[in-house]
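Trying the structure run again after the queue cleared.
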Amino acid sequence: MPGSPGREPLNCRDESFVDRNRAELVQRVSSVMPLADVLMSRGMLKNEPYSEIQAERTSQAKMRALFRFLKGRNQKVAFFHALKKNEPFLVEELEGERSTN
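Done. Tokens:
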């Protein structure tokens, strides 16, 4: 339900942003665990995948691992909103690049 605390509307634009910008996100997101924390707190990421992400040594490897577990629209939308909160300038930049292409 729109406007409900803790609930994002399912938005195809948000999901496509994640899919479209995967390579850039892998290279440029530096704080991966806060994003994984959000997904875990919402029950979208279980303990074993979380531990696999955490065990990776570099932020790029952590992002690749996180992407392996982003399967459905709900997860991608939640990831997008966590990304927008934690890395707002990166999201703005990538959205700006999309609108100029």
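The chain is about 70% helix and 0% strand. Worth checking whether this holds up in the mutant runs.
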